[in-house]
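Let us practice reading a record.
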Amino acid sequence: MGNFLENLFDRLNRSANRVVLREVRGEQFVDVTGRELLDQVGRMRAGLRELGLQSDDRCALLGPNSIQWTALDIALMAEGVIVVPLYSRLGATDLAGMMKDCNPRFLFVSEAGLGDAVAQAWPEGPRQILFADVAGKAARQGVSGAPNARRDGDLVTIIYTSGTSGEPKGVCLNTGNLNFMIGCTTGWMDRLGWKGPEPMRVFQYLPVTFAASWIVLLSCLTKETVLTLSTDLNKLADEIRVSAPNYFFNVPTLLERVRRGVEDNISKRGGLIQRIYRKGVEAWHKQQDGENGGGFSFFLARVLIFNQIRARFGGNLRGLVCGSAPLAPETQDFFAMLGIPIWQVYGLTETCGICTMDDPRIPSEPGRVGQAIPGIDLMVGENEEIVVRGPNVFPGYWNRPEETARALKGGVFHTGDQGEVNSKGNWRISGRIKNLVILNSGHNVAPEPIEDKIAQRVAKAQQVVVVGNGRGYLCALVTGEVETVVVQAAIDHVNADLPHYRQVRHFVILKEVFTPESGLLTAMGKLKRDAINERFRDEIEQMYKRQAAAAGGAAS
């Protein structure tokens, strides 16, 4: 067995005549075989040598998911160059800030427009080169043969964190990290027990500039799969249908929107369809609880409703993988009812994307993110913080020795996530330590569970953000086309099961939906709480003043 990159090259050579990677464009595919991808990589390697690049040089890679992005990434790694992948939807100022931190020799861009925006933000930045120009003319003699030799400690990539609090940091991952992790993920794929007549089909819409998505890319190219890359998120539903994947990786946002959308649509139709759906759901839950009866109701709902929902995913779906944040148990149950299992994954960029994974051979526990992957130690430290030790843990942040020392204090990586593990070894993530809302009473409140419960009961809510640091009680911001009466009913329902200090007393509905482009969400859809609190400082202040005035009026 070679290192992760040698194994990838070996698989592409053995898949010379079959499609390994493709882009979905409308109703058509642009695809490459193993040989064609290696040919692109070889020409790009030759182009990199003409540029005078050497091992350990740093180069930034900016562009959306594509075959060209993949080929250039592989070529850079094969030449020993340290790759700095940059998310193409980030603002130019953020991108410039990341590059100022790591000072890459070149910036490779998929199109001139992306590079022009960065150049305006940082005129003194590195020379920019288009992906297509790296490969040069098709007639160029490419570099053939194996990738350059690598040691376990050799740096492969610097991936910048999403920066939910504070500025992004460059996470360094080395060959040893990747060898271990790709071994884990390809082993997990083996446990799926794929026995189809054709290679497994995997769909990828999440940006491969992020650690877990990049691991999916490398794992698929190392196995006998056909990986399809999304090219237009605005047409994601159509792309999934056309691609008809067997599996794909998700974040909770998409899956929860699918569930809420179905439930909202059913509620609007009313009448017979609504009764069939409701009876089918009730029957499924009875079956899960081991009760008899309801078989015909579930059969009717499956034939008339559930199968039509499932068909939106192309008809060949065997299962979904979900990461980035905990998935609501109700959503996991919803997909299980459709016959689509969801396997959860938990990890951070600093842990090479993954710490826990549901085992596809055994039933998963809704609300939990699976067991620790073999070969690592996952433990609960002080303040219920999850700490990790193992070959998946990064060696440090780029050019930040003090922050590295804090993160790796005591020989373990301090994740900043709170959680607990049950007797089966399945982990639950309860929140982020930095996200704790500290009331002036001294109570510490994790906002995420409260936000999730409210959002589950407000179908059209895009985001729910609990606020209250230094205050006497909690309030909430709610975005989306929602009705006041619906939000109030949801909060009343959630409050009924909470102690007084965790109850939400008031809320405000915001017209502005948070997006990565507005700087209020990370690229993976996580809340940037500091930015949200600053942007809506006046609205939050007015909300507390109104609540105080109302309380005063009631007292008088």
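A brief commentary: DSSP finds 18 helices and 25 strands in the chain.
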